[in-house]
Amino acid sequence: MKKIISIIILGILFVPSFQLFGQPNTSEGSESGTTTNATDKFGSNPDQCKMNLSLYGEFYKQKNYADALVPWRWVFINCPSSSKNMYIHGGNIIEFQINKTKDVTIKEKYIDTLLMVYDQRIKYFGQEGFVLGRKGVDLFKYREKDVQVAYDCLNKSLKSEGNKTEAAVLLTLMQTTILLHKDSKITKEIGVENYAKIAESIDAQIAEKPDNENLIKAKQSIDELFANCPFSDCEALINTFTPKFTQNPTDATLLKNITRLLDKKSCTDSQLFFDASEKLFEIEPSAEAALNMARMARKKNEFSKASKFYLQAIESQENADSKSQYYLELADLNFKDLSQYQQARTYALKALEFKPNSGKAYLIIGLAYASSTKNCGDNDCTQRAVYWVAVDKFIKAKNVDSSVAEDANRLISTYSSNFPGKEACFFYNIVDGQSFTVECWINETTTVRF
User: Global pTM?
Assistant: First the structure.
């Protein structure tokens, strides 16, 4: 856990702010903001203010941050309400000095200045929630010992910005949450609540911008941190959300958080998961809610009800990968729980329509074939012939999906040893290498081998 946090923290420490936050955020806004009137904005010496604004601006355009420092500082001190861009540019100018300076004492003074830039920007141009987020990220980057102060800034930013909170703010809030819990400064319950809010924000943004790499990478890091943190166990999740569910059983956002987190941590046997899933389906019958109901019914051995909910989830779902997964689970139910092998194949084939490289679908088909010895053939040779087509499917599974190779190889070894014997097949004019069709419900052609 500590190693994972350290790696991500080091990654942040050596990434410039403009990269960490991605492309310029529209939240930065224009020059308008909470400021004084046009006469006062340039201070007591407007001509000199305008001159220094222009001077530092030219240096800044050339990325000459070293020479931009002196005229920028004059503007920052003498006409602080003159330009919002002065604060936006100032962050990069000061960070350049922080990273260039070797003297620890001077570096600390520059860090103080950077934090002042954020505070003064809020004073003159507002956007407190947005700016506090950036302040919190930089505070944690440069002064990890002030993790509590950084956490407070980040937490306040998320409360203010909600689903517009920047990815770097969400990631850093998750990191500071874990570190404060490690120091016993926040409880497991608060840690879980923070993750739920962070996940809700990042998921909402990805839903709007599914191709945004900055958001996707942040989500992956956040989920990895949560998966390995000490407050992500089932007990903590259940203890955190049970009283909230009792108080607000019809809060759709809360119900989605509960079911998503419990499912992610494999806590789906809990009564809370059952109750929240059922209530969510009542008030908002989405594909995800129907899926949870299907899984819940299956755990209770209510297979007919589970099948109905799986089909409802499939009908409501638009994402191809998700449809494939739902069909796969329905195929598994028919194979394992109902011994309906032909129906299992039907659903596995539907899963392949939406995800052609699903190795698991081919494994299910192969297992359904291998389980049909008593239903196919009228002698030892033709009954065991189902193992030929079963192994064909296992080979196909590992060829299209390397993630199932280990399982596929194990099944190939097991069922190859059960191929019909040469002597048994000889009496029925079935010889090595010839084409052979396994009839009954399977109706597939394979190659004879012993």
Answer: 0.58
